[in-house]
Design brief:
The complex is a heterotrimer of chains A (213), B (374) and C (458). Chain A has 8 helices and 2 strands, in the order ααααααββαα. Chain A has a two-stranded antiparallel ribbon. In chain A, 37% of the residues are buried. With 374 residues, chain B is an alpha/beta fold. The longest helix of chain B has 16 residues. Helix content of chain C is 36%, strand content 1%. The longest helix of chain C is centred in the last third of the chain and has 17 residues. With 458 residues, chain C is mainly α. Classes of the chains: A mainly alpha (213), B alpha/beta (374), C mainly alpha (458). Chains A and B meet through α7 of A and loops of B.
Chain lengths: 213, 374, 458
């Protein structure tokens, strides 16, 4: 019985790790979300069976209640529509026997999970005037619900408001400074990366057409 | 070298002609001058100078002569934070009030289209109320979701009274609804009032429910309209569009069909709504729908569901925090149908005329955009 | 917010590594040469001309020292070759003969009815190719309603005049000679008649255009000449090209502010392909709103245009002679969106072309900063991009310092003197400064709506 319970705990560790990674990506939020905890359930050997699952679920639920921010990806997905990344499950297999081409279901899940973490983090920043550093309580979604009208597919282009050719990140920073009256991000700021990821994700499937006004 | 007398300047010629223009008018007051210069309108149109006026006086008077029976103005969706949080939105509401106060002749009343506050806080609503007190004509208030969901309308109702009411003006029956009620999504999530408010305040937040008028108000509406003959002109004010445009953003009223059914027996019904922050035109049978501009920020057009009759306004210039924003006026004709004026700041005003919706978009087509929403 | 790395793009947003910057004006410019202001009353009699200008001979001599000999049919070095094609009308390709004819006309007072006003009277070589007056003086001492823009680099504008009522230098040149408060000739024919009997002109027109003097070719020649007035070699250009020491640290801060908090770049677009620093658009920034009732003026204008037709001759005279001048672009388009809107002026050589704004109502660049810092003057047609900027005094100083780096190095001494003069004036008076508005303690439209007395809503 104890072994079965621990299976759930192992899962929880995965979730905890995921949450930490996400938190680190967006900077100081990591501290708020918990980071390393002393009371993380320890990993254990595999187990199965209905009772075990039930117990594991209960333990997981209890753990989640104690650590509500650990589920921030799910929460973000529940709160805002996030376009999922491309489905790679048709690639699973290794028909020609090359190492690089050996793709498992877990690979596909890992890719999806990691990609969504960045995009969901972008959604979180996109919808938060505080995260964006706006001094006038304005966030991106107020003019761009669901990332609409952000037209990442048109960059690089001559951005008339700036009088020069801009990349998407330049326009993001322009909006942060002008529309939000905040401090522009460094180009490699984790929040900038996340914002770019979310905006590009929301326009998935749109044809590229750089230079279009 | 050819020499000649100094030519008479345009200004002196102008003054001479103006004198003769005013001969017989008696008093050279401004209003009188405007009436006279209204005659210029025909000439302007004949020259192919096409623009739609707003408070631009000579044209305003000319329109009065073109058969409308009265005009009311509107301001909508100001989304005020307190001024220490965001001075921009406050300034923009002030600008709208300045526009309305400059209208000459003044409108009969002003409709405030809802979302006066951003987060429904007492300070935000009080600030809005104070600014709206400087409007020099009566203001009819409508409630929006941003005004409502912090305290479920308590503060707003203390300031402005019942959100659901009707009145008659110049033979037209006006009805104001609270169309932003939502099914309870907050109790099971143990949300605080502010969490509930912030959830509703996010247009693309998927947790909240859909807007609705609700059974109680529908019943009220049925009773309010009972006994009115079908030829009564009816104009309905609702914050959300009283039809189904785009569900994810609540550009939508869940029980719109039921409300429309109540209005169907009337010959002409006009619905003026806020919430969408854009130029928006729709017609379903006898019901003609017009959106209102926001004074806070413009929304892009939704990715699907845009009514066919709508001609988009150009997408806004992000440099200009006032672009795509403004206020406007509604010219009501004796049959109850309206010319809807969108007074877009720094752009030419756009008029969606009564004939445009009556002809289902074949006549008096407004100028099309060259920069639509992405 | 502690972990953000400093953003290099904020230091110099256009970036010094941008391809093409190196060509910006370093090669073909003669040695730097200083020009002082030729104040009319300091000039000896033989160097003084009517209306405060320097004599035409002295001006031509000065011009010869400014402009190096070059093949005018070639693209001027700092100008993008593809854009140059779009700037030169197909029916007026550049040639030495045309430039020579245009130059003669530019300095010829016979283009005015009383032989006192040439182009060079109000676009005086010794006064930064303008007259450095609020508004210009024409025949009989008549004052116009608008500030004379410099003809330096004017060929870069897409439209001419402050309301853009014409679209080429060729067309523009036709109007001042026949405007009653400028050249005062009764007609275009009279302008041609004033020079047509001069054998020198007959020879030069023949050489330039293969025909006798005529009005269209007067405009063409003046256009061709003005396309040689290229003054785009400023310290700022060297900074962009990679010379860190070309401008001061304060000016560099000003450049960052220009692109960021100051919001200048959105209208005064400045780039290698667009070196003038204008969007060629029309904006109501509220300069005229201090004194005007726009709606009343607009009503007057509509009535006048109806009576007289909307022709450009009429607009030209309304713009220079009447209060309707303040309507700006509206006179041209009758668009409500253009009421009180004037063309964004280029900012090249801005340090030496005071006074500023379409009516010359501001004496210093500090005044201009004060105007924008408080969000302009609220009026129903105010451009919404004009909003209070909350710039501090240090930031204003930096922006002004930056603007003085945009002066061509051939005017370096004049620029320095002007900077000091403006600083002196600004230290005494800042008539447009409004700290409460600039810092957003009082909001635009607030005084209009709530009145001066009422306590501000908080």
């Amino acid at each position: 019985m104890r072994e079965r319970i621990l299976c759930g705990a192992a899962l929880a560790v995965v979730v905890a790790f995921a949450a930490c990674g996400g938190a680190q990506q967006s900077g100081e939020q990591g501290a708020e979300r918990g980071g390393e905890d002393g009371d993380d359930p320890a990993a254990g050997p595999e187990a199965a069976g209905p009772e075990g699952e039930e117990a594991a679920r209960e333990l997981m639920a209890q753990w989640r209640r104690q650590h509500p921010d650990r589920e921030w990806i799910e929460k973000e997905q529940e709160t805002h529509t996030i376009v999922p990344p491309a489905d790679n499950s048709d690639l699973v297999g290794n028909p020609q026997g090359a190492t690089y081409a050996r793709i498992t279901e877990r690979d596909v899940a890992l890719w999806e999970r990691e990609t969504m973490r960045l995009v969901a983090d972008g959604s979180r920043v996109f919808h938060s005037a505080d995260e964006l550093g706006s001094t006038i309580a304005v966030s991106c979604d107020m003019c761009h619900p669901d990332g609409s009208n952000t037209h990442p597919e048109t960059y690089p282009k001559f951005q008339v408001q700036m009088g020069r050719v801009a990349l998407l990140r330049d326009m993001i920073n322009w909006c942060v400074e002008q529309a939000l009256r905040g401090e522009p991000f460094a180009p490699d700021d984790p929040k900038m990366r996340a914002l770019e990821a979310y905006i590009l994700a929301q326009r998935s499937g749109t044809e590229l057409g750089y230079g279009r006004r | 070298m050819t020499r000649r007398a100094k030519p008479k300047s345009v200004e002196s010629k102008y003054h001479e002609e103006r004198e003769s223009l005013f001969e017989g008018l008696g008093r050279l007051d401004r209003r009188g001058f405007m009436k006279v210069s209204a005659a210029a309108l025909g000439a302007v149109a004949a020259k192919g100078l096409t623009y739609t006026p707003f408070s631009f006086l000579p044209v305003t008077v000319a329109e009065a002569q073109a058969g409308r029976s009265f005009r009311f103005a509107y301001i909508s969706d100001s989304h005020l934070y307190t001024r220490d949080v965001n001075d921009r939105f406050v300034r923009q509401l002030l600008r709208a009030v300045d526009d309305i106060n400059a209208m000459d002749p003044p409108p009969d009343f002003v409709l405030y289209g809802g979302d006066l506050a951003q987060l429904g806080q007492p300070e935000e609503l009080a600030l809005g109320a104070q600014i709206l007190r400087s409007v020099r004509v009566p203001v009819k208030m409508m409630v929006g979701e941003h005004d409502w969901f912090l305290d479920m309308g308590d503060e707003w109702q203390d300031l402005f009274g019942e959100p659901t009411y009707s009145f008659d003006h110049q033979g037209v029956h006006f009805v104001t609804l609270n169309s932003v009620l939502e099914e309870d999504f907050w109790t099971e999530r143990n949300m605080t009032p502010m969490e509930r408010m912030q959830t509703v305040a996010g247009l693309d937040n998927t947790i909240q429910s859909r807007f609705m008028v609700g059974a109680e108000q529908r019943e009220w509406l049925r009773r309010d309209l009972a006994g009115k003959p079908p030829e009564t002109p009816v104009i309905v004010f609702s914050h959300s569009p009283l039809y189904k445009y785009y569900r994810p953003w609540n550009f939508w009223t869940e029980d719109a069909d039921e409300v429309q059914a109540i209005l169907r027996r009337f010959r002409n019904v006009v619905v003026i709504h806020g919430h969408t922050h854009q130029l928006l035109t729709h017609r379903i049978g006898n019901i003609h729908f017009h959106g209102m501009l926001s004074t806070a920020w413009p929304w892009p057009y939704a990715p699907e569901g845009l009514p066919e009759l709508t001609i988009q306004m150009n997408r806004a210039n992000p440099f200009d925090p006032n672009d795509g924003l403004g206020d406007g006026a509604v010219d009501v004709h004796p049959d109850g149908l309206v010319d809807k004026l969108y007074n877009l700041w720094n752009r030419n005003p756009i008029e969606v005329s009564r004939t445009y919706t009556v002809s289902r978009g074949r006549r008096d087509v407004p100028a099309r955009p060259n920069l639509p929403s992405y | 917010m502690t972990r953000r790395a400093p953003c290099p793009s904020r230091r110099a947003p256009v970036g010094r590594a941008v391809a093409g910057l190196a060509v910006l004006g370093l090669a073909a410019i003669p040695a730097a040469r200083a020009f002082g202001p030729y104040e009319a009353d300091e000039l000896s009699d033989d160097r003084r001309a009517p209306h405060g200008a320097m004599s035409m001979d002295a001006q031509q001599q000065a011009l010869a020292e400014l402009l190096e000999e070059r093949d005018v049919s070639e693209v001027p070095p700092p100008i993008d070759a593809r854009l140059w094609e779009l700037m030169v009308p197909e029916d007026n390709p550049m040639s030495a003969a045309r430039v020579a004819l245009g130059k003669k006309l530019y300095f010829d007072v016979r283009l005015s009815a009383d032989d006192t006003v040439a182009c060079a009277t109000c676009h005086d070589v010794s006064r930064a190719f303008t007259d450095q007056r609020p508004t210009s003086e024409g025949i009989g001492g008549a004052l116009g309603k608008r500030n004379a823009p410099t003809t330096m680099n004017a060929f870069l504008y897409e439209t001419l005049f402050l309301d853009g009522r014409v679209e080429s230098l060729e067309e523009q040149a036709a109007f001042p000679p026949i405007n009653p408060v400028e050249g005062g000739h009764p007609s275009r024919e009279a302008v041609v008649a004033a020079i047509a009997d001069d054998p020198e002109y007959r020879r030069m027109f023949q050489q330039a255009y293969g025909r006798a003097p005529n009005h269209e070719d007067v405009g063409r020649a003046l256009g061709a000449f003005q396309r040689t007035l290229v003054f785009l070699d400023a310290p700022f250009d060297r900074f962009l090209a990679g010379d860190e020491d070309a401008i001061s640290e304060e000016a560099k801060r000003g450049w960052v502010l220009f692109n960021g908090k100051g919001r200048c770049m959105s209208c005064h677009m400045l780039s290698p392909a667009n070196p003038l620093g204008t969007d060629d658009e029309f904006h109501n920034v509220g300069v005229a709103a201090r004194t005007q009732d726009f709606e009343q003026l607009a009503a007057q204008a509509l009535a006048t245009l109806r009576r007289e037709g909307g022709g450009k001759d009429t607009i030209d005279r309304l713009a220079l002679e009447t209060e309707m001048s303040e309507l700006g672009r509206f006179l041209v388009t009758t668009n409500v969106s253009d009421i009180g809107a004037f063309k964004t002026q280029g900012i090249r050589n801005v340090g030496i072309t005071a006074p500023y704004m379409h009516d010359g109502s501001m004496r210093t660049l500090w005044d201009v900063m004060d105007h924008y810092n408080k969000g302009g003057e609220p009026n129903p047609y105010l451009d919404g991009g004009i909003e209070p900027l909350a710039l501090t005094e240090d930031e204003i100083d930096a922006l002004v310092e930056f603007m003085f780096t945009l002066t061509d190095r051939r005017f370096a001494e004049q620029n320095q003197r002007e900077l000091e003069a403006q600083r002196r004036i600004a230290s005494r008076e800042r008539p447009f400064r409004d700290e409460d508005m600039a810092m957003r303690r009082v909001l635009p439209f607030e005084r209009r709506v709530l009145g001066e007395q009422q306590e501000s809503p908080r």
